[in-house]
C-alpha cells in the first residue's frame, strides 16, 4: 500500500521516501490516522512491523514546535539501546533542527539531565525507572504532557517496571496514551488498563512466508511455571494416548526437578543423559523406544547437539528455547510419521514465541486449558476440599474421580486417539 494512504505532510512523506520507505506497513494503515486524531491506542504487532515508526510519524504530525520548558511527549522504553533507537528515528525522519528531544539514561548524570530539561525540550525518552527518579527530583515536569507512549511494553513488563509506568501515567492525567507491544496478555493489561481503559486495540500480524513443513502444532498459554507442571500431569494421566512423549526443557536442572514432580509410576519417566546419577536415565533414543514401560523422556536443550525424534508421536516444549532455531529443529517434519508438537508458554515467554511464529510464517493454534487443570496462584491457600498433595510435588490438587478425565484435546490428539481405538 502506497505511503499516500497515510496522508502525511509533504515534508514527512518526502523524508520517508528519501529513507527508502515507499509503502505503508499494516500497523501504520490501521493506527496512524487514529493517533493523529488524538485517540489512545493499544498496538499489537510483531518485531519489525513498524510500531516505532508509526508513533514517530504520529507525534511529528501532531507536535507544534514552541519553545516551552515542559515536554509535550513522554516515551517510555525498556533500555538505553531502545532509547537511542527512538531518538535516532525522530531525528532522521523529522529533519527538523527545531525539534528538541533528549533521553534520560541510568548511565548519565541526573544533574545534567535536569539542567537540559530546564532549558526546554519537546520530547523525553526514558526508561520508566529513570523517568520516575528524575520526576521525584522535580526535574521532569509532566504538567504539559500531551502524549504518553509506552514502547516495547512487553519488555517493560518482563523487567518488572509496571508500577513506575502506572505512577508516571497517573501523574500526566487526561492525555493521549499509546502503548505498543509484540504480544497481548494479562500482565500487560494490569499495567495499562488503569490509565487507558478505553484505548482502541489495533493488531497487525505481518507474518512471513510459510516455507517450512512442520508437525501439527498446539499452544497452551498458562500463567506460571507451576501451572505448567500441573498441566503436564493432567495430560500425562492418559497413558493410552500419551504412550511415547519427549518433553524438552532448557536446563538439566529443570529436567531433574520436573522428574521429581511428575505423578507417574516408577519407570514411566526418565531423563535423557541425566545430570544427577541417581535420576532415572536413558542415554540414547533407541533404548527409549525399546523400553515399553518408559513413556516420558525429559530432554534438556542445555548441551544437546542433536536428537532423533523420528517415530515420537508427541513432542512437548515445556519451556521456550533460548534460540528459535532449536525450537524449529524439533518441530520440522522429516518423514511421513505424524507427530504433534505441543508448547507450554507463560505471558513472559510469548514474545519469543511470536518471533518463532514469524519465522514459521504461521500462528500456532491456542488450545483451551483442560477443565480440571488447577491454576496455581501464589496467594492461594489450601482449602479442605482442594488440598495440596505435598507428597506429589507441592502443587498437585486432588480432584473428584468424576472429574479426572475432562480433557480438552486438540484435533490432532483426537485423531491419534481415534486411530488407536480403531486398531484395538
TrEMBL record:
Domain (Helicase ATP-binding): residue spans on this chain: 32-202
Keyword Kinase: no
One example GO MF annotation: ATP binding
SUPFAM superfamilies (alphabetical): P-loop containing nucleoside triphosphate hydrolases
Skewed-composition ranges (Basic and acidic residues): 380-390
SMART domains in the cross-refs: DEXDc
Record has Hydrolase as a keyword: yes
Residue segments, region Disordered: 378-424
Superkingdom assignment: Bacteria
Pfam families: DEAD (PF00270)
This protein's UniProt keywords: ATP-binding, Helicase, Hydrolase, Nucleotide-binding
InterPro entries attached to this UniProt entry: DEAD/DEAH_box_helicase_dom (IPR011545), DEAD_box_RNA_helicase (IPR050079), Helicase_ATP-bd (IPR014001), P-loop_NTPase (IPR027417)
Gene3D superfamilies: P-loop containing nucleotide triphosphate hydrolases
Protein name as it appears in the record: ATP-dependent RNA helicase
Native organism: Sphingobacterium deserti
